[in-house]
Amino acid sequence: MSTLIIAEAGVNHNGDMELAKKLIVAAAAAGADLVKFQTFKASNLVSASAPKAEYQKKTTASSESQLEMIQKLELSREDHAVLIEECRAHGIGFFSTAFDFQSFDLLMELGCLEQIKIPSGELTNLPLLRYMSRVGKPLMLSTGMANLGEIEAAIEAVVEAGTPRHLITVLHCTTEYPTPMEDVNLRAMVSMKQAFGVNTGYSDHTPGIEIPIAAVALGATVIEKHFTLDRNLPGPDHKASLEPHELKAMVDGIRNIERALGDGVKRPSVSELKNKPIARKSLVAIRPIRAGDTFSSDNMGAKRPGTGLSPMRWDEVIGRTAIKDFAVDELITL
Fold first, then answer.
1. pLDDT tens digits, 110-158
2. Which residue range or ranges hold the AFP-like domain (predicted)?
3. Where in the chain is the domain with CATH 3.20.20.70?
4. pTM of the full predicted structure?
């Protein structure tokens, strides 16, 4: 099964449509399946008194509120239409996360709901969970900041509202930008799969590319990763994002892991069969053996190549009588 790789442009367009288009081109060039933005109405998402997160304070102007910061990053209906067309032109799927009812309706009207993503911050927003899951589309639940009980409650809510359980993918996530390695707890993804019997994936905020690649090896069916054109650009998420060459390296690494995982059946691979007779051993004479001599550990041993009798037949041969002469290193035959 191919991992769904989501290149998270998020709000790294900084409200600039030309920058947003360049992000789409970079995601397509890297080989991602989808490029994801964020759809929200700032006034529906953030109250005027809402503080910024610590990482946002470090990467944006201290004088502006969270609401002011978010307002600059809104995408209009027209912006969405332009980005959808740009994705179509570059052969990559458009995807976006809705953060409120109005934004979800907009994505529905634009035909952008082949898949639905519920962000970590909305995992406990019961009215929105019900509203977004009623359409019965494949749905991703991001689980940053959540415990198992909260995740279970969210899963039950979306199932009751109309999303079949088999269409749910729970994304392990740590809501810190960037995420310290000691806080990743990647095994929690495996625990959620065992606990809830749903598909699991990983939404990554760590520096580098090794953790999402490891997640695929552990069974992730979806990988989401923030990216930017330049980590030095102003804005809240650029510092915790990959640059285009890193995004491509991550995609390539994931695809290599997929090929390497195989089907789980242990058998000789096609590429190694040619080496089998070279690397394995056969029973050979380790000193001259005359017809009528008895095969023993004194005159018989195992050496390469493996084109004769397998040493696994040692007990079958030992003690038998040689029917012909054997020179040193000659393959033993019965």
1. 999 899 999 999 999 999 999 999 999 999 999 999 999 999 999 999 9
2. 282-334
3. 4-261
4. 0.90
Give the residue from 331, 293, 286, 330 showing the smallest Cα distance to 313. Answer: 331
Q: What is the DSSP letter of 179?
A: P
Q: Which fold has domain 268-334?
A: Type Iii Antifreeze Protein Isoform Hplc 12 (3.90.1210)
Domain with CATH 3.90.1210.10 in the chain: 268-334
* Dihedral (CA of 52, 54, 55, 61) sign: positive
* Topology (CATH) of 4-261: TIM Barrel (3.20.20)
Q: Tell me the sheet residues that pair with 203.
A: 173, 224
Instruction: Name, in order, each residue with C-beta under 8 angstroms of 13's C-beta and a sequence gap of 6 or more.
Output: 19, 20, 23, 37, 73, 75
pLDDT in tens, 17-28: 999 999 999 999
